[in-house]
Automatic annotation (TrEMBL):
Its cofactor is Fe cation. Residues 149-234 form the Quercetin 2,3-dioxygenase C-terminal cupin domain. It comes from the Bacteria. Keywords: Iron, Metal-binding. This is Pirin family protein. Residues 11-121 form the Pirin N-terminal domain.
Length: 238
């Protein structure tokens, strides 16, 4: 029997700092909800809009897998490992913070905002050597398909992390449906709708809604309208 938890878009935490407009699916910074601390190993899902020329100054992380998915605009990155790069729509970035890193992120454009998801997962192994990876994927692969953008395996499609997790992006036309089969027994799924409306085993999800599901083997996902969404299969224990 499947178990689900529904997080409607308007129940998320919200902080508008002027330069940063952030929505939090899980407790973050000044927003704390004891019922929304994490979903399995998924600790943070932030939906951020960064103003032109603004960003996060250098700050530390450790023992966390940090995934950044740009949705609009560019994000410039610098870190204590010596990496300097800019990511844009169609790129995926991951940092395994491990024993500790410092990094900064900012919008390099003077007249354009940047939108992104930043996602944190607890790692399978603590105190690993910090690492950075960035790829560009073919966005056409997600048309009426689950395009894998992250896995535990360096030889698989997408980036890899120190956790038994698989992420997929999908872009479904209205009326299209497809079954998702669980990769690893005991994992759960958190589905986040980027735009449009979908149903997951009959549960309707609208733009920016999130749905956590456990105790399942397959999911029937159907687009009610043209829709884009992110699937995050993650361990429920760590």
């Amino acid at each position: 029997m499947k178990n689900t938890v529904l997080h409607k878009a308007d129940t998320r935490g919200h902080a508008d700092h002027g330069w940063l407009n952030a929505y939090h699916s899980f407790s973050f910074a000044s927003w704390y909800n004891p019922d929304r601390v994490q979903f399995g190993t998924l600790r943070v899902l932030n939906d951020d809009t960064i103003g032109a020329g603004m960003g996060f100054g250098t700050h530390p992380h450790d023992n966390m897998e940090i995934i950044t998915i740009p949705l609009e605009g560019d994000l410039a990155h610098k870190d204590s490992m010596g990496n300097e790069s800019t990511i844009k729509t169609g790129d995926i970035q991951v940092m395994s913070a491990g024993t500790g890193i410092q990094h900064s992120e900012f919008n390099p454009n003077a007249d354009l905002r940047t939108k992104l998801f930043q996602i944190w997962l607890f790692p399978k192994t603590r105190n690993v050597t910090p690492r950075y990876q960035q790829i560009t994927y073919d966005t056409t692969e997600q048309k009426n398909n689950f395009a894998q953008i992250l896995s535990p395996n360096p030889d698989d499609a997408g980036v890899w992390i120190h956790q038994d997790a698989w992420f997929h992006l999908a872009d479904f036309e209205a009326g299209f449906s497809k079954n998702y089969e669980l990769k690893k027994e005991g994992n759960g799924m958190y589905i986040f709708v980027i735009s449009g409306t979908i149903t997951v085993d009959g549960q309707e999800l609208e733009t920016r809604d999130g749905l956590g599901i456990t105790d399942f083997k397959t999911l029937d996902i159907k687009a009610t309208t043209d829709a884009k969404f992110l699937l995050m299969e993650i361990p429920m224990t760590y």
